[in-house]
Specification:
heterodimer, A: alpha/beta, Spore Coat Polysaccharide Biosynthesis Protein SpsA, Chain A, 7-stranded mixed β-sheet, 3-stranded mixed β-sheet, 9 helices, 16 strands, globular, B: alpha/beta, 2 domains, 6-stranded mixed β-sheet, 5-stranded mixed β-sheet, 20 strands
């Protein structure tokens, strides 16, 4: 790596820091229970807007996994999400009505909170429709994983986004509050992902899956990125620079092995394709606050009008993490 | 006769207390060494919880660092205390705070009582050692290591290099035969006392205080001087990963640990409540006289280490992405066959091949209008789309995915100059590719077409140029694919051996007789057609030497297909 390149990345990181420090002023405290955070606690960070119906299951899922404290940013919800979260004993909540897009899709807000509260803790950064699975997650809590990562001197853990969808039309079954969304959206695309390497940040860029197959068959380059690094042992020098797709310093993006071996990795099951997507699409298109001029939501809108079926006869029905491991979507690495 | 435990602990003292309590309660004396870095409050709690046992002692607390002599010194202190305080102890078992007994204490006592003279310690000569990380074995004994391997890796490495270069070597004291082995042993009183009371002990201690990771070599070497009955194995079940770090056991390892029949296992995750409850409870199942047998579980650990270092061949995914092809020797996960020109010559080649071999025979997977999956499927295994744009976005990933998604089924597909050529380089470089080419076969559909001849002439020139570039790649010395090339003329002259080669290529073991052959298209007048192309100023060299008359072959001698691989 040339000195100039190194210097440029450093400047970029410093600018990202200045930026999140500036944006942190947009956050207004609703409930700050961070005093309860213990020394080795595992923290979850999330930004949301109008996700009230999803919250009970989301909190239940991650509490069971072993998250000790939730630090959340509410971006102007008006469906009761804010009130619901502020009553939870293990949630600290901030709110803002400023632009999601201008805060680089929420990354700036979360970077600020992580800088302030997340250092020397394992931080999990997910959306409320993303559910982490990792090797042995049905028999070992998240702490088993983070302890093992600590012992292996690993600071970041990759988990690819896996889009889940129902068998019938998206609108056919209504998601009920508190329900496991994967009772409805129980299928996924198992083997149509493409990966390229980004030499600048050394991260992998993964695309494909059902979103490329159904919504972007004629513009694959525009299909959303699925590579994610949601779990990081946070340090004050770290910043996320594009959602949770990549970080600086870029060594954190090396969640893959370059010489033929497999590092341990997980998946983020993505419960986006539920009946709630139609309303969400309407709302997001009005707000125009999403990546690439919300082209993703524009693509959904075109398709959603004729109530699409994402399922095909090759769709795989989700069973457990072992299935994802065998399919080669994630790996145990040398964790036994 | 009894067994005494020395327990070295530095964190999670509550678990250390629990395990010590289990042994003490079963009349096995315990001497604990708690690292000086552990918090005083935790130490006090531990002492309080063990206060009810009269057979627990505490060695003076030292500050222990990884790979430092202080660990050996602490062990020696504790051993002294054990031998002096508990005269009934005949075997001393060294364990750590993250160890867990897997079998009832009485069984261990009986087992050792039956072997009163045996020292259980893994002790291997430096020449035989295979597990050392960084390749340091004998050099652990002959070099100096003033820099920490964990904190100052670069300095450590540089200093080792320097000493190697100048040929420096420390003097090994007399009586020390360099041996290495697991830190966790079980020695007899006699041997341990001999080591402790060795007249040269001061010299040895001084020497070993400069040896790298002495806890894996001090007792392992000195035991060779004093013991007459060494069983070179550890009674503690422990496995290391490729980074030299012990594998950790969790609740879901319960059955695995039970199957090991070992007395003690390391290392246990401190929050593995089920393991602690089961193995320290009263329900521990008695195995009587079964020998410990950790080997039968090794498969699990060997596989895990292989997964981490070698991975699954042919799979590129979020945590395996070989960057240099040198390392990724195997690019795809299974062999497959590519046929170029065969469907132009046989009207039912695909169905014939599928019927004869049971393989999946696709059409032109890289056709311009999209991937022609078998039976014209729009989506295929793994939800792979036939969309040309999606495929062409990353053709290599498309092919890798197809092969990965259809493991257990042999894949074949057609390829030709009318297809997207981007995959060509990859095919040539993949050792799993078996490529059969009949050059010039693309001329046959042109011959049958009703296109105006001027246009045919232009298309033919383009196809020939594309094919020539492709064939040149296949003939390159860097090609790793198995390639078989025939010109159209060679093929038409004697097609049977070619078809036989095709069948053998898919399943080399089975000798399939050519009982049924695919239907060759009508070639009446093709020689004339080729001549016409020549007359128009084109040189259709890839077709080969096609005779002008319409009954090819009968008199001319056979030309053998040649192979490049």
């Amino acid at each position: 790596m040339s000195l100039i390149e190194r210097y440029r990345l450093r400047v970029e990181r410093q600018r990202a820091r200045l930026r999140f420090m500036r944006k942190s002023r947009q956050l207004r405290r609703v409930a700050n229970r961070t005093g309860n955070i213990g020394k080795d606690d595992i923290l979850l960070f999330s930004v949301l807007r109008n996700e009230r119906i999803r919250l009970p299951y989301f909190l239940e899922y991650y509490r069971k996994l072993g998250i000790n404290h939730f630090l959340m940013v509410d971006n102007g919800s008006d469906d009761g999400s804010r009130e619901y979260l502020s009553e939870q004993p293990d949630v600290s909540l901030w709110t803002t009505s400023h632009g999601y897009k201008q805060a680089r899709f929420g990354v700036d807000w979360l970077n600020a909170l992580q800088f302030r509260y997340g250092c020397d803790h394992w931080n999990l950064v997910v959306d409320v429709d993303e559910f982490l699975v990792y090797p042995f997650c049905d028999s070992r809590p998240l702490r088993a994983l983070t302890d093992w990562l600590d012992a292996s001197n690993v600071r970041s853990f990759g988990a690819m986004l896996l889009d889940m969808y129902p068998k019938g039309p998206i609108n056919a079954v209504e998601y009920r509050e508190g329900q496991d969304p994967f009772e409805i959206a129980e299928y996924f695309d198992a083997g149509n992902y493409v990966i390229s390497h980004n030499p600048k940040y050394r991260n992998l860029w993964i695309q494909g899956g059902v979103r490329a197959r159904v919504f972007f068959p004629n513009a694959p380059k525009k299909a959303p990125a699925l590579n994610k690094i949601p779990l990081v042992k946070w340090n004050r020098r770290y910043v996320y620079i594009s959602s949770t797709h990549m970080l600086l310093p870029r060594g954190l993006n090396l969640v893959y092995d370059e010489s033929g071996g497999e590092k341990t990795s997980g998946c983020l099951l993505h419960a986006k394709f539920l009946h709630t997507l139609s309303d969400k699409t309407e709302e997001e298109l009005k707000r125009r606050q999403h990546y690439g001029n919300s082209r993703e939501y524009r693509a959904y809108k075109e398709q959603l009008e004729d109530s699409p079926v994402l399922w095909c006869k090759w769709s795989e029905k989700y069973i457990n993490w072992r299935q994802l491991e065998i399919l080669g979507l994630m790996s145990k690495g040398n964790w036994v | 006769m009894s067994v005494g435990f020395i327990l070295l602990a530095h964190q999670n003292l509550d678990r250390a207390a629990q395990v010590s309590g289990y042994w003490a309660q079963n009349d096995l004396p315990v001497v604990l060494h708690i690292d000086a870095k552990a918090e005083q409050r935790e130490f006090d709690d531990l002492k309080a919880s063990l206060a009810k046992f009269s057979n627990v002692r505490y060695a003076p607390r030292r500050n222990c660092g990884w790979g430092e002599f202080s660990i050996v010194a602490a062990t020696l202190d504790a051993a002294r205390l054990m031998l002096d305080e508990f005269p009934e102890v005949n075997h001393v078992f060294l364990a750590s705070g993250s160890c867990l007994p897997l079998r009832p204490a009485a069984e261990l006592r009986d087992y050792l009582a039956e072997r009163p003279e045996t020292d259980f310690i893994e002790s291997v000569t430096t020449e035989e050692v295979t597990w050392t990380v960084g390749g340091l074995d004998l050099e652990r004994f002959t070099l100096h290591f003033p820099f920490s391997w964990k904190r100052h890796r670069r300095l450590f490495d540089r200093f080792v290099d320097l000493q190697r270069r100048v040929g420096y070597s420390r003097h090994i004291p007399e009586g020390v035969e360099p041996h290495l082995g697991s830190q966790w042993w079980c020695l007899t009183r006699k041997t341990l006392a001999a080591i402790l009371d060795d007249p040269q002990r001061q010299e040895y201690d001084r020497y070993f205080s400069r040896v790298w990771i002495p806890d894996e070599s001090y007792f392992q070497s000195l035991v060779r001087k004093h013991s007459t009955n060494i069983e070179s194995r550890s009674l503690t079940f422990s496995r290391f990963d490729n980074q030299g770090k012990p594998h950790v056991f969790y609740d879901d390892h319960l059955q695995l640990l039970q199957k090991s029949d070992c007395f003690v296992a390391r290392k246990i995750w401190p929050h593995a409540n089920l393991l602690y409850r089961r193995f320290l409870g009263n329900e521990m199942k008695a195995l009587a006289r079964i020998e410990p047998n950790p080997r039968k579980l090794d498969k699990v650990f060997v596989q895990a280490n292989l997964r981490r270092t070698r991975g699954r061949a042919g799979r590129r995914m979020q945590s395996r992405f070989p960057m240099h092809d040198l390392w990724a020797i195997q690019k795809t996960c299974a062999p497959y066959s590519v046929f170029e020109g065969f469907t132009d010559l046989f009207s039912n080649f695909q169905t014939w091949l599928e019927k004869r071999t049971g393989a999946r025979v696709h059409g032109h997977l890289f056709g311009k209008r999209g991937a022609e999956f078998v039976d014209g499927a729009e989506v295929y295994a793994g939800c792979l789309s036939s969309s040309a744009k999606l495929r062409d976005y990353n053709p290599r990933a498309f092919l890798e995915n197809l092969l990965w998604n259809t493991q257990g089924e042999y894949q074949c597909f057609q390829f030709g100059p009318a297809d997207r050529q981007a995959i060509g380089n990859f095919l040539a470089s993949d050792q799993n590719a078996r490529i059969h080419v009949i050059t010039g076969a693309w001329a046959v559909p042109l011959f049958h077409s009703n296109m105006e001849f001027g246009r045919i002439r232009r298309v033919a020139a383009r196809y020939q140029a594309i094919e020539a570039a492709h064939v040149e790649k296949l003939r390159s010395p860097h090609t790793r694919a198995q390639v078989k090339l025939w010109t159209l003329a060679e093929f038409v002259e004697n097609p049977m051996p070619v078809l036989q080669t095709v069948l053998n290529g898919i399943d080399p073991g089975a000798s399939r007789k050519l009982t049924e052959v695919p239907r060759l298209v009508d070639l009446q007048g093709f020689g004339r057609f080729v001549q016409k192309l020549k007359n128009e100023g084109m040189n259709p060299h890839s077709v080969g030497d096609f005779p002008l008359d319409d009954i090819p072959g009968a008199k001319t001698p056979r030309i053998k297909p040649y192979a490049i691989s």
